[in-house]
From TrEMBL:
It comes from the Bacteria. Gene3D superfamilies: predicted glycosyltransferase like domains. This is Type IV pilus assembly PilZ. SUPFAM superfamilies: PilZ domain-like. The lineage of its organism: Bacteria, Pseudomonadati, Pseudomonadota, Gammaproteobacteria, Oceanospirillales. Residues 5-119 form the PilZ domain. GO terms for molecular function: cyclic-di-GMP binding.
Length: 129
């Protein structure tokens, strides 16, 4: 039996993000969920093909890396800009022209990971006392 690979809690979201490959803006997309380990984005077939051109399988030892820029709301009045470099981990086809792409955080610009940590802490599930 497979062990549960979900080490981090995921927070559903509808955060707009910009994807860049080789410092060129590729597209805008939506982050469907976020965790301390990475994000899942939703996209169409064209975006998937732009990210993974001529590639049918994801090779773990040769990861495809994309740059993701997005704003995280840390309060009602305050958003912070986050820039992360991510490895494509998996893809999932939802329908004819709808896909999800799992992206694992590889590293962050500056210390942007602390913003993800803060966002996750704000949205952590509460356990009853």
């Amino acid at each position: 039996m497979k062990s549960n690979l979900r080490y981090h809690h995921r927070i559903r979201s509808e955060i707009e993000a910009t994807l860049l490959v080789d410092n060129e803006e590729l597209c805008s997309t939506t982050i469907a969920n976020i965790s301390r380990a990475g994000i899942m984005i939703e996209c169409n077939q064209k975006t998937l093909e732009d990210i993974l051109p001529n590639q049918h399988q994801i090779a773990p030892k040769k990861p495809v890396q994309v740059e993701v820029e997005f704003n995280l709301p840390l309060s009602v009045y305050h958003e912070v800009s986050v820039k992360a470099y991510c490895n494509v981990i998996h893809t999932r086809r939802l329908s004819k022209n709808s896909y999800q792409i799992g992206l694992e955080f590889a590293h962050f610009a500056n210390e942007d990971f602390r913003y993800v940590e803060q966002y996750m802490h704000m949205h952590a599930p509460t356990t009853p006392a």
